[in-house]
Amino acid sequence: MNPLSLEIIARYWSPQEIAVNLLVFTNLFGALLLGLIVGYERSYHGRAAGMRTYGLVCMASCAITVVVGYPSFWYGGTTPGTVAGQMFPDPTRVIQGIVTGIGFLCAGVIMKEGMNISGLTTSASIWASSAIGILVGIGFYAAAILLTLLSAALMMWAAKLEQWLPSRQAVAVMMCFRPGFNPQESALRRIAHERGYDLADGSLNIQLVNNRQEWRYIAIAKGKNKGAPISVLAEELNAFEGVEEFQISHARN
To answer: Fewer CB near the terminus (10 Å): N or C of the chain?
Structure first.
């Protein structure tokens, strides 16, 4: 059979094919809107992954999933190797491939700088966006809308909830001492304790660079609003004997 014959080409524009294409289009458009809703929160807060990323992830996940449901309409209904025009692909394998592929994209937005890790929330929300697209693709529209609202609400208001609940802020500290100076861990813990902090167990890292000791650790406040502000800590670190360089920041994840 000539693949360029008018009969073959007409099959791609048959009423049944057009109806399926319209249904797929409505699924893609709905997934795009839901992805944009989730991505707006990230875009509003200036994150690298914004509305475009989330919209594309959600819509692409939906597209890959929804086509599995119409194998008899693939290639104008002339798919080679079918039985009576029917194929039976495994949707679970398609979903597994989507989740695996999105995992690589999520890993790309996670950044580690010193003891600070950022991008975890963005990574998790991109993964959730792909799940929304999958739900739309298989026809669970109500579940997709609910997951969208829950994801957006979680990213917008969970931080405020965390501020309201009892919490302990964490501070990442790096101190570089002058050559020959030997700091004592007991003195470091005592100084941190006097300023409302405890050293996180297992966080102390000591490195020798150009004959100078470099200490990195995480200090955790004893309670909410009990730890000294990092501006005050910076002033005191600047006056500490033996400290030549230092860096202090809120430990983010």
So the answer is: N
